[in-house]
Amino acid sequence: MDNFLPFVLLIGFIAIQRIVELFIAKNNEIWMKRQGAVEFGNKHYKYMVFMHLLFFVTLCSEKILLNRGLSPIWPIFLAIFILAQFIRGWAISSLGKNWNTKILVLKHGLVIRKGPYRFLKHPNYFVVTTELLVLPLLFNAFYTAMLFTILNFIILSIRIPQEEKALRMLTEYDEVFQDCHRFIPRIVK
Q: Which of 68, 108, 156, 163 lies 20 to 30 Å from 146, alpha-carbon distance?
């Protein structure tokens, strides 16, 4: 149990972070809907939320039941996690009031092309994908890492096309992102 405190502290940090993000998202949702934003993808949203909640339950369960300890390369996993948090904050601040956990699009709204969006179409999904892999591996929770990498792939294979379709319908998304990849950063133009 010598690594239980770091686990509790990290999970506590993430829980507080997610609660703050939900408040930000709710305020942004109210603002966007007042501006006339249209919501897309609400059928899959509850499954995405459930998957994220289940991730933490599964991670905590695997940690408590199997308690394999920290990974021998935990500093690398922790550094990746910390870097992902900076990218998350950068993405959220770049989108400003447009950032949300739901797919909300303003008709003829400006497509954000600053911050990490200069390099990736979906930096926040890149961060989430990274976290769902790195967090369990940090604590040798291999079952959680495998299961939620697969579940996240399934959710994102539904969500990203719906989000891109919504953006194509209501904005100049294709013109702005014609030379940008979904997950592979564009280094040079």
A: 163
